[in-house]
Design goal:
With about 400 residues, the protein is α/β, with parallel strands linked by helices. About 35% of the residues lie in helices and about 20% in strands.
């Protein structure tokens, strides 16, 4: 395999690069800025810089085509929302290259939280009561229905932009700051007590070949995880396969789901149609066999396996010492870092470059840094330049399928 791994700024992209490169595969990393940490791994054959898929779509596709041709790439592995731009422009990619991802319509249906709720309901997977709102008036009416509520845009990610009156994020966002529209609606649900359970899956030809179910005992600003603990996968594997069967029995790619566990039942919350940090908990051989589709039974991460992003845990301990210092010290002393045994520390030294990139994208505005860090590689449901008529129709169909 000669692979191109995109959005190399992500810790999970770095992990995929390490797993592929350490096995002798030819790996090229790329991102929209040279300082992306995955682009500095010792397991790379080369690294490249591309235009932004969101802001310069045509040039991004041209850059990917150039890299594929120059490095004789046979597999493109997206790790963030550049996957939508690639899937919508798959007809422009060089002949013979494999995009390890589903079709645009399937990915859009998973990403749109409204159509995702309808999909999982049809698959027989439990979901919370859900109201889709398309105006500020409808938002006020919906949150008035629930004494404790939880609301977010159908296109949102990373625990950013959440409206709630319950829990540690209560009051962090004002109703006045929320502006649902027909094109960019919001979901409102009753606040569901219980821990968040996440999954990471590799799917080949409609079959789950690897599954990791995990929790995040420590989170940065109550949003994105910085420590990861493997949990039992029995129920999540069943639910993941049900969703795939309902979506597309021939689906291939990487998917990540979020569930909340309430009174012993798992409720599906959202899907990230891409990898997440759960991949870090998979052993290299398990990942490679699952990726190649050669496994007879899915590779399952055993409960109890734990990893941390040590630099983030350390930063969190100083940012909120009263709340996190004791737990952070325990993790720093006892939990293995994501770079354990990789001897690839130079790559992680580039981690702060992603923060600087996010600050640059924020243009001095007061917005969440986590949001800004991915602003040039996200997709928020807009038509993509150069997409086919069939994919444009699929996007309209996704909108019609919102619950």
């Amino acid at each position: 395999m000669r692979a191109l791994v995109l959005s190399s700024r992500n810790t999970f992209a770095l992990d995929i690069i390490r797993k592929l490169g350490s096995s002798g595969r030819y790996v090229v990393a790329a991102d929209t800025f040279a300082g992306a940490m995955g682009s500095h791994s010792r397991f790379l054959a080369a690294h490249e810089v591309t235009a932004s898929p969101r802001f310069e779509t045509d040039q991004f596709i041209a850059d990917v085509c150039r890299i594929v041709t120059e490095h004789n790439i046979d597999t493109i592995i997206p790790t963030f929302e550049e996957v939508f731009y690639l899937a919508a422009r798959a007809h422009d990619l060089p002949a013979g290259v494999r995009l390890f991802a589903g079709g645009f319509g399937e990915l859009a249906r998973l990403h749109d939280k409204g159509s995702f709720q309808r999909l999982v309901e049809q698959a027989g997977v439990p979901i919370p009561e859900t109201v889709v709102v398309s105006s500020e008036d409808e938002l006020h009416e919906a949150i008035a229905r629930f004494p404790r509520f939880f609301a977010r845009a159908v296109f949102s990610r990373g625990g950013v932009g959440l409206l709630t009156n319950t829990g540690p994020l209560a009051g962090k966002m004002s109703v006045a700051d929320c502006h649902p529209t027909a094109d960019q609606p919001w979901l409102v649900q009753p606040f569901t007590d219980g821990p968040m359970i996440c999954t990471y899956s590799i799917i080949v030809d409609g079959r789950v070949t690897a599954q990791c179910t995990y929790s995040a005992p420590e989170q940065w600003a109550h949003s994105t995880g910085i420590t990861f603990l493997a949990e039992d996968s029995t129920q999540t594997l069943e639910y993941t396969q049900r969703i795939i069967d309902e979506l597309d029995p021939s689906f291939t790619g990487q998917l990540s789901f979020d569930f909340v566990k309430h009174e012993g039942e798992l409720y599906a919350i959202e899907c990230n149609p891409r990898p997440t940090n759960g991949v870090i908990l998979l052993e290299t051989a398990e990942f490679l066999d699952a990726f190649d589709g050669t496994v007879i039974e899915p590779a399952i991460v055993a409960p109890g396996v734990e990893r941390q992003i040590r630099l983030a845990v350390l930063a969190d301990a100083f940012a909120e010492p009263v709340q996190h210092l004791k737990t952070s010290l325990h993790d720093l002393l006892h939990v293995k870092d994501i770079g354990h045994q990789w001897h690839d520390s130079f790559a992680m030294m580039w981690g702060p470059a992603a923060l600087l990139h996010g600050a640059k994208l924020a243009h001095g505005e007061r917005q969440e840094l986590l949001k800004a860090m991915g602003e040039d590689i996200v997709w928020n449901g807009e038509p993509i330049p150069g997409m086919t008529d069939a994919d444009a129709a699929a996007l309209l169909d996704v909108h019609a399928q919102r619950i």
